[in-house]
Amino acid sequence: MFELNKEYTREAIHSVCGGSKQAFLPAKNGGIVAACLRTDLNPQAPHVIICDGSASARAAGRTLAAQRNAIPVFIKIEVDSFRFVGLFTVSESLTAPLVCAPYVRSSGFTPGQVSRVLKMARCQ
């Protein structure tokens, strides 16, 4: 599928996984198919994913939290270049603002802007 530490474009990720080419958690057929993360918004990526309070991020976070299958996770390196860092599953889903707050530091979000923090575990 993807080669560890190799860089891919959003088009290449989309061609394999499907879903939106713009969403940080693209969905297809009711499930999240990948994570494409920016380190300025997710400084602890790939081990922590922060979902803001927008409707789309809330829905994607809720969907991923309920999902048990692994997804490929990519970290943005530069414009339209994402490094594959492995397959991950959700190990914990946090929604209480005080519990989420430590993970939100240095993320560009305030605790009040965050709807969910997903702790991720590597599968490979």
Percent of sequence in beta strands = 35-45%
Overall pLDDT: 96
Count of helical segments? 3
The CATH H-level superfamily is SRA-YDG
- Poorly predicted residue ranges: none
What is the CATH domain class?
Mainly Beta
- State the secondary-structure class: alpha+beta
Assigned CATH architecture? Roll
Assembly annotation: single chain
CATH topology: PUA domain-like
Percent range of helical residues? 10-25%
Q: Could you give the order of the helices and strands?
A: EHEEEEHEEHE
Rough shape? globular
Number of domain units: 1
Total strand count, please?
8
Terminal Cα span:
13 Å
Largest sheet, in brief, is:
6 strands, mixed
Radius of gyration: 13 Å
Short description:
By secondary structure, the chain is of the alpha+beta class. Helix content is 23%, strand content 36%.
SSE arrangement:
Blueprint: E1 7-8, H1 10-17, E2 27-28, E3 31-32, E4 35-37, E5 48-52, H2 55-66, E6 71-78, E7 81-94, H3 97-104, E8 114-122
Describe this structure in words.
This protein is of the alpha+beta class and 124 residues long. The protein has a single domain (7-122), classed as PUA domain-like, CATH 2.30.280.10. It is built from three helices and eight strands, in the order E-H-E-E-E-E-H-E-E-H-E. The protein has helices spanning 10-17, 55-66, 97-104; strands at 7-8, 27-28, 31-32, 35-37, 48-52, 71-78, 81-94, 114-122. Strands 1, 4, 5, 6, 7 and 8 form a six-stranded mixed β-sheet that branches. A two-stranded antiparallel ribbon has the order 2-3. A hairpin with a 2-residue loop joins strand 2 and strand 3. The longest helix is centred in the middle third of the chain and has 12 residues, at 55-66. The radius of gyration is 13 Å and the shape is globular. The two termini are 13 Å apart. 34% of the residues are buried. The mean pLDDT is 96.
